[in-house]
């Protein structure tokens, strides 16, 4: 069982010794059951840190944001930043390292185990509790969560209220870390990779298009899926209305000639284009943290788009994003045994 | 809208569908599941299936009068000639929206201020005149993050509504609040019975019990604006926005947020043909304020969180003497990282 | 106002004058309304200019209110819409809607000495005030114009400034020494200090790059100008022009409605989000 007190103590000692600039972790939120990301620079505040199945966010995002902020502020503090990372978060950090987004020594990874389960899906949980408000959720062995409501604590099979992605998770333990808390439970009873997308693909093509048309039609284009994705780190995105990377020597022509690939209108064509572009740019990079799907306020099952491409990467090239920071990325490498002949 | 003497009637729950049936001169909308777990205002297809005990809809009903995309006009221009503009003012068929929560109708009142003050917005006005709002008092809080009473509202507030319905045992208490509302009730004819003293007592009791549900308080609402002003330069803004991912959820789903973009959508480049459209925009997006030069007056997440909160609890108060937040709780519930406007106001809006 | 505020009127480009060439080119467009349309404006107000298929940009009206036959706009080529405008020719038709914003309180300044301080493209927004003051020359005291560009090639309204001499004290400057330049060399705020205009009964009106405005105001304060004797204009990204789209919102103000003209006394109270 994960020892949160030890996690806090580790974070505290890192900050007290001054060996990291800050610790990115989770703390309890005032907004509801789910934890909130917290960047803690004060050793005394490490007591706020938690880790339980409500810690859904992928904190690798904040490493990307931290880098942007540091470039902007021209900070010369070279110390690393510490980050609490679940299995999926650590895979995301690995991909960022593979892509040379930041050097390995700039991050101290505090790995945390999902104890053979995963994190909750707030919608599933709300349904399961049928109107009762969950006050806390804790790991309870490798197949259950202990959930407290005003009626007291109860043990619920994790699979019933767990996030879809956790049900399909291929490595619920950090693949990369400097210090790990909790048990590595690699043999998982819940293991079922690509189950959802395989199920969806059994459907007729016309039905699938009708399904996606319905999903895209209600997209708000709030871009939460893009904003929450640690891999969507482009300075400027195809959906942005203007150039972001404007320097003093950026010419009027460069700004004037910027192509508007996607209109702002939430029309089906534009929205479909947006989600397709995003999915394709994530091929071989998506670690299936499924944050895009979780944050969508209108419940678009975006994970299906990404896992479709990850399934292709896995089944065709045996590529598993985020498994090895020293391996070349999927799209920057080839093997003689790769299928198709175009490369030879 | 001028208020007449309120008309109070009773409607058997089973007769809701019959009443809807008599409103066939209007398009009818009610909250329904658009997809799994996604409550939205949907066209009423089968009146008998309409239930008015829904949780908060994901989107507020603001799109009826301020749609996410509005074509302002079409343009076409043959090279060397003058452009031809074709104004596309909306002229929608009249509509009745059922199940509007009082926080959302109070949001509408705030939108009215924005779109009709000084310069009238003919697109908004054109739609607004055609939509009748039938409210639904919240006997139970429709969201765990409701805080309407902390911002001057209530689960049975009437502002912005044409009709307010309150569910009682087997019946609805239906109160017409405007002439349009009265007309709507008149169409129901004898489906409606006059509310008796006992009914009025029952509805008062229901409203009192609705108001008794605990909500998250905002202390000294009257002092929040001044405190926010005093705390404008507080480093806490950056700190609280640290987790912000910069998406548009909080603003797009807010019943009062009204910011928009205007852009040209080109259908054909020669001859030049297209539409000038306005689409929802968000002060939380970094490109919202960025100048062509690259200078961005609100470059940081902290400054953008401050803009959202101060616009609702300071600037709008200075300009219109009321908060631009009606406590629906959507921005709190749906924020992916738990940024909570009540907590922010608690921290920086208290003297 | 009952008409559709979003619908532009059509205006024909009657003349184009190249003010400044190069990467940051400035052209002055004289636009005459067609179809008998049009509107009157006050000093300091702006208008939205449309190039259909590209978009709209808020531009300050550079001609004086007493000029009724046309409106003039001096526009730097800097983004999508302004580049499209620079590519247009005389005779082409654009959209113009407005006027937007508040105004310089020129009427309140009668009998006062006026000191204009401009830099780069920033002469355009205050030019209508210069023109109005010269047109009603006897109503005002001394009129002084400080204006500077990066180099002599960046000086806009060259001929117009020449014509002012006699009615107006004109002090031009360029940032660095050039052969044949007989004016001041150095930055605009420094030029102001060397001439040290008196604050008595005076109003200073300044517009230019933010960094210039910052030092101009600092210097004016040193010369004894009170906060309410200094006027400037600010700009922000704008889309609607009528205080609804929220883009130019700063504090409780919408720059398109409550601005762009501010006294330093008023501007000091506004959050620095412009």
Defining key terms:
heterotrimer, A: 344 residues, alpha/beta, 3-stranded antiparallel β-sheet, 13 helices, 9 strands, C: 274 residues, Elongation Factor Tu (Ef-tu), domain 3, Rossmann fold, 2 domains, 7-stranded mixed β-sheet, 6-stranded antiparallel β-sheet, 20% helix
Written account of the structure:
- The complex is a heterotrimer of chains A (344), B (351) and C (274).
- Chain A has 344 residues and is of the alpha/beta class.
- Helices cover 35% and strands 12% of the residues of chain A.
- Chain A is built from 13 helices and 9 strands.
- In chain A, the strands form 2 sheets. In chain A, strands 1, 2, 3, 4, 5 and 9 form a 6-stranded mixed β-sheet that branches. In chain A, strands 6-7-8 form a 3-stranded antiparallel β-sheet.
- In chain A, strand 1 and strand 2 form a beta hairpin.
- In chain A, helix 7 packs across helix 13 (303-317) and helix 8 crosses helix 11.
- By secondary structure, chain B is of the alpha+beta class.
- Chain B has 2 domains: 7-59 and 89-212, no CATH class; 221-261 and 282-348, no CATH class.
- In chain B, the strands form 2 sheets. In chain B, strands 3-2-6-7-8-9-1-10 form an 8-stranded mixed β-sheet, with helices on both faces. Chain B has a 4-stranded antiparallel β-sheet with strand order 5-4-12-11, with no helix packed on it.
- With 274 residues, chain C is α/β, with parallel strands linked by helices.
- Chain C has 2 domains: 9-100, Beta Barrel (Elongation Factor Tu (Ef-tu), domain 3), CATH 2.40.30.10; 106-233, 3-Layer(aba) Sandwich (Rossmann fold), CATH 3.40.50.
- In chain C, 20% of the residues lie in helices and 31% in strands.
- Chain C has 7 helices and 15 strands.
- Chain C has helices at 80-86, 123-135, 158-164, 188-195, 210-222, 255-258, 264-267; strands at residues 9-20, 26-33, 46-51, 55-60, 71-76, 93-100, 113-119, 143-149, 169-174, 184-185, 202-207, 230-233, 249-250, 253-254, 261-263.
- In chain C, the strands form 3 sheets. Chain C has a 7-stranded mixed β-sheet with strand order 10-9-8-7-11-12-15, sandwiched between helices. Chain C has a 6-stranded antiparallel β-sheet with strand order 4-3-6-1-2-5.
- In chain C, helix 4 packs parallel to helix 5.
- The interface between B and C is large, with 52 and 44 residues.
């Amino acid at each position: 069982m994960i020892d949160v007190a030890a996690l806090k103590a580790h974070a505290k000692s890192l900050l007290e010794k001054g060996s990291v600039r800050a610790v990115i972790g989770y703390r309890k939120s005032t907004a509801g059951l789910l934890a909130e990301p917290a960047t803690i620079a004060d050793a005394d505040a490490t007591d706020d840190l938690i880790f339980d199945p409500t810690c859904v966010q992928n904190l690798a995002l904040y490493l990307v944001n931290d880098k942007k902020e540091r470039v902007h502020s021209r900070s010369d503090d070279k110390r690393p930043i510490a980050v609490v990372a679940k299995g999926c978060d650590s895979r995301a950090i690995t991909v960022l390292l593979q892509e040379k987004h930041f050097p390995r020594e700039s991050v101290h990874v505090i790995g945390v185990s999902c104890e053979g389960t995963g994190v909750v899906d707030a919608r599933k949980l709300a349904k399961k509790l049928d109107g009762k408000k969950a006050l806390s959720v804790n790991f309870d062995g490798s197949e259950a969560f202990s959930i407290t409501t005003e009626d007291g604590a109860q043990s619920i099979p994790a699979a019933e209220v767990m996030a879809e992605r956790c049900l399909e998770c291929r490595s619920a333990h950090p693949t990369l870390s400097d210090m790990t808390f909790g048990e590595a439970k690699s043999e998982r009873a819940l293991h079922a990779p690509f189950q959802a997308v395989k199920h969806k693909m059994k459907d007729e093509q016309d039905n699938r298009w009708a399904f996606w048309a319905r999903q895209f039609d209600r997209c708000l284009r709030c871009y939460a899926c893009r904003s929450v994705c640690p891999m969507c780190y482009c300075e400027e995105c195809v959906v942005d209305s203007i150039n972001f990377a404007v320097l003093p020597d950026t010419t009027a022509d460069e700004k004037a000639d910027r192509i508007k690939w996607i209109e702002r209108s939430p029309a089906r064509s534009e929205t479909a284009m947006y989600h397709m572009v995003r999915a394709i740019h994530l091929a071989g990079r998506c670690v299936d943290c499924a944050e895009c799907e979780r944050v969508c306020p209108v419940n678009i099952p975006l994970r299906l788009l990404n896992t479709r491409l990850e399934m292709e990467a896995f089944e065709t090239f045996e590529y598993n994003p985020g498994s090895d920071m020293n391996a070349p990325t999927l799209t920057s490498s080839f093997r003689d045994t790769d299928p198709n002949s175009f490369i030879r | 809208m001028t208020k007449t003497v309120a008309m109070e009637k009773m409607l058997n729950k089973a007769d809701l569908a019959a009443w809807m049936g008599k409103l066939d001169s209007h398009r009818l909308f009610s909250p329904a599941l658009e997809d799994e777990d996604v409550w939205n205002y949907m066209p009423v297809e089968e009146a008998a299936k309409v239930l008015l005990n829904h949780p908060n809809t994901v989107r507020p009903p603001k799109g009826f009068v301020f749609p996410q995309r509005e074509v302002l006009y079409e343009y076409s221009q043959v090279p060397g000639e003058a452009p031809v503009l074709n104004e596309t003012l909306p002229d929608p068929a009249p509509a009745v929206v059922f199940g509007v929560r009082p926080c959302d109708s109070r949001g509408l009142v705030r939108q009215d201020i924005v779109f009709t003050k000084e310069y009238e917005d003919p697109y908004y006005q054109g739609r607004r005149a055609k939509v009748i709002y039938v409210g639904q008092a919240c006997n139970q809080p429709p969201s765990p993050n409701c805080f309407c009473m902390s911002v001057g509202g209530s689960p049975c507030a009437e502002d912005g509504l044409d009709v307010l319905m309150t569910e009682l045992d087997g019946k609805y208490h239906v109160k017409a609040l405007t002439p349009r509302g009265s007309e709507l009730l008149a169409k129901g004819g004898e489906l409606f019975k006059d509310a008796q003293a006992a009914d009025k007592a029952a509805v008062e009791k229901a409203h009192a019990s609705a108001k008794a549900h605990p909500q998250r308080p905002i202390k000294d609402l009257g002092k929040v604006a001044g405190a926010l002003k005093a705390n404008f330069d507080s480093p806490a803004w950056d700190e609280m926005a640290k987790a912000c991912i910069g998406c548009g959820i909080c603003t797009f789903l807010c019943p009062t947020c009204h910011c928009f973009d205007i852009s040209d959508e080109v259908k054909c480049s020669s001859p030049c043909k297209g539409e000038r459209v306005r689409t929802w925009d968000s002060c939380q997006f970094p490109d919202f304020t960025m100048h062509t030069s690259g200078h961005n007056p609100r470059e940081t997440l902290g400054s953008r969180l401050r803009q959202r909160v101060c616009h609702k609890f300071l600037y709008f108060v200075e300009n219109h003497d009321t908060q631009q937040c009606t406590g629906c709780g959507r921005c709190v519930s749906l924020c992916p990282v738990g940024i909570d406007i009540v907590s922010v106001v608690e921290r920086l809006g208290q003297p | 106002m009952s008409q559709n505020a979003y619908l532009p009127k059509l205006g024909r480009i009657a003349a184009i004058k190249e003010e400044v060439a190069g990467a940051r080119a400035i052209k002055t467009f004289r636009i005459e309304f067609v179809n008998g349309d049009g509107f009157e404006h006050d000093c300091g107000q702006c208008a939205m200019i449309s190039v259909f298929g590209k978009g709209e940009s808020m531009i300050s009206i550079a001609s004086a209110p007493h000029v009724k036959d046309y409106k003039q706009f001096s526009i730097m080529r800097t983004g999508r819409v302004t580049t499209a405008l620079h590519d247009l020719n005389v005779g082409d038709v654009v959209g113009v809607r407005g006027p937007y914003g508040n105004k310089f309180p020129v009427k309140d300044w009668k009998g006062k000495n006026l000191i204009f301080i401009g830099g780069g493209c920033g002469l355009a927004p205050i030019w209508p005030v210069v023109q109005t003051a010269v047109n009603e020359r006897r109503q005002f005291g001394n009129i002084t114009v400080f204006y500077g560009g990066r180099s002599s090639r960046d000086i806009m309204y060259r001929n117009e400034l020449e014509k002012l001499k006699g009615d107006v004290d004109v002090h031009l400057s360029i940032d660095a020494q050039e052969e044949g330049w007989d004016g001041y060399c150095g930055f605009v705020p420094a030029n102001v200090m060397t001439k040290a205009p008196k604050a008595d009964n005076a109003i200073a009106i300044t517009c230019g790059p933010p960094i210039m405005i910052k030092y101009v105001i600092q210097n004016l304060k040193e010369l004894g100008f009170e906060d309410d004797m200094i006027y400037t204009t600010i700009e922000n990204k704008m889309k609607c022009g009528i205080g609804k789209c929220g883009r130019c919102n700063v504090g409780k103000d919408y720059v398109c409605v409550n601005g762009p003209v501010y006294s330093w006394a008023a501007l000091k109270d506004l959050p620095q989000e412009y």
